[in-house]
Amino acid sequence: MPKLPGLFDSFDNLDQISPEDIALGLKPIPQANLLENYLGNRILYPGTLPLTEQDMKIDLSILREALKQTNPKPPHQKLNALLGDNPFLNTTLRKVLIPVRFLDFVPDLKSLVLTFIDALLLGRERQDFFEDLWTIVLTDDIDEVAGSLLLPQFDGSSGVMNLRLQGERYEINQGSFKIISCPKERCEIAYKLQKGRMLGKQESAVEIYGGKLGLVVDGRSV
Asked: Quick one: pLDDT at residue 48?
């Protein structure tokens, strides 16, 4: 019987992750030796399923750190302009690429997407304002668009983004993270920002991809 791929089979860098990095964001913070033993178990048995909610949180922290180490280099650091992307982030087409098989281990798509954002886009230097909008894709034999990601750029502090989608109005404050349902294949949004811009403008309308996840708006310092 063939071996089924595990959550961490795609990574060969797990031994480079420190318990301190895994602990970031975990509450309560486990003891370092427990995290070290847990990571060692995942290296030996990458297909093991988490047994508890805390196990799931630790797995997501390990995944976040593993993804960080595969983060593509900025264009000016690439040896070849056509190279540098990894299997999880296409910077040319502005796509976040999530293997659909990861959902066998992390069935919560929202938590999985947040982990990818934290690892691959949080703190990333933007090359142009087009990187304010990304498409979230579940990759398999046939790829599926799950939704879109907006990364508004705020000036200073106390910024606000007012957004209208499918007749509903939403307010996203700077520092917050919000997921809005948008099951249609394509959706039109209108937005206006106070103390900020998106796609180079304070106010505009744009068509985005929708899907099972919908629209993710990340107003944190990305």
From this structure: 86
Query: In Å, what is the CA distance from 50 to each residue of 23, 34, 47, 65, 218?
Result: 17, 15, 10, 17, 27
What tens digit of pLDDT does each residue of 48-93 get?
888 899 999 999 999 999 999 886 555 444 444 444 467 899 988 9
β strands within the chain, DSSP E = 89-90, 95-99, 133-139, 144-150, 153-154, 160-165, 168-173, 177-180, 186-194, 196-197, 203-209, 214-218
Task: Please report how many Cα atoms fall inside a 13 Å half-sphere around the Cα of residue 34, on the Cβ side.
Answer: 8
Nearest to 211 by CA among 134, 166, 144: 144
16, burial (CB in 10 Å: exposed 0-12, middle 13-18, buried 19+): exposed
Question: Helix (H, G, I), strand (E, B), or coil: what is residue 76?
Answer: helix
Cα gap 20→31, rounded to integer Å: 10
Pairing of strands 186-194, 160-165: antiparallel
Report, as ranges of residue numbers, the positions in the chain whose pLDDT lies below 70: 1-4, 71-85, 221-222
Distance between start and end Cα atoms, the chain: 44
User: Cβ distance 198 to 152 under 8 Å?
Assistant: yes
Q: What are the tokens at 49?
A: 């399923």
> What is the Cα–Cα distance from 219 to 141, expressed in whole angstroms?
33
Phi first, then psi: give them for residue 6, nearest 5 degrees.
-95, 175
Question: Quick one: pLDDT at residue 147?
Answer: 97
